[in-house]
Write a structure and sequence with these properties.
This protein is of the alpha+beta class. It contains 7 helices and 7 strands; from the N terminus they run αβββββαβαααβαα. Helix 6 packs across helix 7.
Length: 243
């Protein structure tokens, strides 16, 4: 009887140790996801999530497996895209214009990844640890900000009455198509905090006047004259729309 109880005790302890070694759930904290990477099976397809039971036999083999932990809290950043239209500084200097044709867009962005997306990034060797993941999200935020700024500038060039704040978030994200560059990223928050767009109408008038003067040798017109021509053209366009 004593031998039986001793054997039962040893078996119980052994089973408990085996269970503990393979039990991965308790190692994953809230707002964190784990991915098992082993020499025998590579990257596990099922992520380890806090609060969901997970046990992996791969840890029973010494030095065979590793549980990689990743933070899934959204990355909150602000990004500013600024610049000046091509030769804008030249036209400003020549015409003594007060408009430098500069622009800037200040964005507030929040990004994250789903647990399954993290697994996919690991499988594709795009990331290998949590630092890589954070860098990946930072680059995604940079890409989103640049694509959004490019979209706003394009729309402003097409229409003098365009205002960036009038574009709905869903419409913007559909047009910039971040998923082509970062298909795994989830955009949890996105907003345009502040912006300044250049006067494309005046810019094109100054550009046209400058180019024309280079070919004809005529004197470059004053900026006030160009502005008046631009305003008159705009008014004529408005009358055309009214009638």
């Amino acid at each position: 009887m004593k031998k039986f109880l001793a054997s039962l005790f040893i078996l119980t302890v052994f089973s408990a140790v085996v269970f503990y070694v393979g039990w991965t759930q308790f190692k994953v904290k809230p707002d964190t996801v784990g991915v098992v990477v082993s020499k025998t099976d590579g990257v596990s397809e099922i992520p380890v999530v806090n609060g969901e039971f997970a046990w992996h036999w791969q840890f029973l083999l010494p030095t065979n497996a590793e549980l990689k932990l990743f933070t899934i809290k959204p990355l909150n950043v602000t990004r500013t895209i600024k610049g000046q239209l091509p030769s804008g500084e030249v036209y400003t200097s020549i015409y003594n214009s007060s408009d430098s044709f500069s622009y800037y867009f200040n964005f507030s962005i929040s990004l994250t990844l789903s647990p399954q997306a993290i697994v996919e990034l690991l499988r594709l060797n795009k990331i290998s640890n949590n630092d890589d993941l954070q860098e990946y999200l930072v680059k995604a935020a940079d890409t989103l900000a640049q694509l959004s700024a490019d979209y706003y500038l394009k729309k402003a060039e097409e229409s003098g009455s365009f205002r960036p704040e009038s574009v709905r978030r869903d419409d913007l994200l559909r047009n910039v198509q971040l998923y082509k560059d970062c298909p795994e990223v989830d955009i949890t928050a996105f907003s345009l905090v502040e912006s300044k767009i250049p006067d494309y109408s005046l810019y094109k008038k100054l550009q046209s006047g400058f180019v024309s003067s280079q070919f004809t040798g005529e004197q470059i017109p004053e900026v006030d004259s160009v502005k008046n021509d631009s305003e008159n053209t705009d008014n004529e366009d408005d009358r055309g729309l009214l009638f």
